[in-house]
Amino acid sequence: MQRRVPKPGPTQGHRMSRRGLAAAIAAACVASPAAFAQTAQTAQSSSITQVLLYPGGAQVDRSLRVPAGATQARFACLPAALERDALQVQAPTGVNLGELKIERVARDSLPECRQRDPRVREIEQQRAAVEAEIAGVDVSLGYLKGLSDREARPGPALAASLEALRRNAQDLTSRKQVLQERLTDLGHELTAAKAAAPTASTQVSVATLRLSTAQAADIGLSYRLSSAGWQPQYRARLDTATGGLVLERLAQIAQTSGEDWNEVKLKLSTVRPRQAKELAPLQPWTMWLHQPSARSRTFLDDAAPVAAAAPAAPDLSSVQITGSAVGQVRFDPSVFEGEFGTEYDLPQRVTLRANGAMSTVDLGRTAATSRVLVRVQPATDAAAYLLAELPRPQGSWPAGPLQLFRDGALIGEVLLRFGSESTWTVPFGLDERIRVRVEPDKREGADTGFIGARREVVLARQWQVENLRGRPVTLQVLTAAPVPQHEDIRVQAQYAPPVTQADWRDRRGIQMWELPLAPNETQRFQATYRISVPKDAIVTGMP
């Protein structure tokens, strides 16, 4: 026997259709915004694949995926101030490229370019979550109130039910009060975040590239910006017990290009892309003879004519980034002069806002063993200074500030600027455990020679250095001896103990002692100079 299932009546079927339609509409309402956003992003949005920062600018590389059969690639939301003559397009084999059109439009005219501050967006999302939770608490309180208004039969269960309602209502009311306080705090935070949010530029650039491709492809676009850059910074950490020296490379980066760089691959270069391309033509060397005029016959008129002054070269001492909500950012390209081209490839991705705020990134570190010295220059300062001496590190080291840490304590900051020397000496501040005493100069004078034809001065300088440390130190003492610049100036010098190196580091007249100094040991030094000059001569630097 077959059982027949009754068909739903018109009313029942109508209700089911409405329910299904409502569910479909709800699902579409939930899914369609994301789907539409994804479609728009796939069709219009490009992503930054890499940023190369160099002194006084940056090169940004973008990529856009185009589908098979596409006839154009559209790069929207580009900075309005990009260098258009430096635009480059990259496409794989099989993609035919056509006209590249650049136009500047209002930011608000493109929905995908409208910017919202991430902090403001985050607070607004938190506010929405708190408001939703408050609405849920209100629904629960309303339900409990409805239960309390119903008639209840007297009996043992009534007291338990009332107690349960009271506890739940009390918990929900307390929870609502906490949420309202949190909502008030978020309101204050939102006001502050909106005030601190940078104002985006009102204009953007849109690059439209005509093309033809039979298959999906990635189209690349590179452009340069002048409103970005980086500056080197260093840290040196010395362990005085072992002589271990760790040198950290850092970079301060900033940009005000008009576009935020979120989680981008970042490279730093020491080479500026716009430099002199070739030598200027060499001009002939000509000589002219000018006869003096009748009105003036001074010897100055016979001098060679002075060439006309060349126009002043542009001031490249600094590149200034303006438009920052935080302040002006300045980078000095001169610190990279004379440096070999070097690139630093950062392993971590970097987020850099377009508000000019400085960020610091780590470029690695170098470990070396140095020779720790204590240096004294009695003629300039009756104190001892700690130094670390080591061979100059290999590689490119643009000039920049160097922070000094001695045994974990910050000592100060100096400028790291290498010259042509092969040995690098790093100062690490005053050594209070080395005592220096400078005694007053002793001076004697007399006339010598036939009837006093010459004048002679004997100058004796003495000082002593005491080691109050619990371990031996290597002591260097430097003094400047008189250097005659004329054959009639005669100098005889005696040193006790004998100097270790005369004309130290090819500096004429600089004498250097170097010796170990044991704990609690005191070392005396003496320099005696016998200087003879003509009696009536006026000698500069005569003691």
Describe the protein.
The structure is a single chain. This protein has 543 residues and is α+β, with helices and mostly antiparallel strands. Among the domains are: 118-196; 434-534, no CATH class. Helices cover 20% and strands 41% of the residues. The protein contains three helices and 28 strands. The chain starts with 9 loop residues before the first helix and ends in a 9-residue tail after the last strand.
List the helices and strands and how they pair.
Elements: H1 10-44, E1 47-54, E2 57-66, E3 72-79, E4 83-90, E5 95-106, H2 118-149, H3 156-196, E6 203-213, E7 217-225, E8 228-238, E9 244-255, E10 261-264, E11 266-269, E12 319-321, E13 329-331, E14 343-345, E15 350-352, E16 359-369, E17 371-377, E18 381-391, E19 400-406, E20 409-416, E21 423-430, E22 434-438, E23 442-448, E24 454-467, E25 473-480, E26 490-496, E27 510-517, E28 522-534
Parallel strand pairs: 1-11, 8-19, 17-25
Antiparallel strand pairs: 1-2, 2-7, 3-6, 4-7, 5-6, 8-9, 9-16, 10-15, 11-14, 12-13, 17-18, 18-21, 19-20, 22-24, 23-24, 24-28, 25-27, 26-28
Helix pairs in contact: 2-3
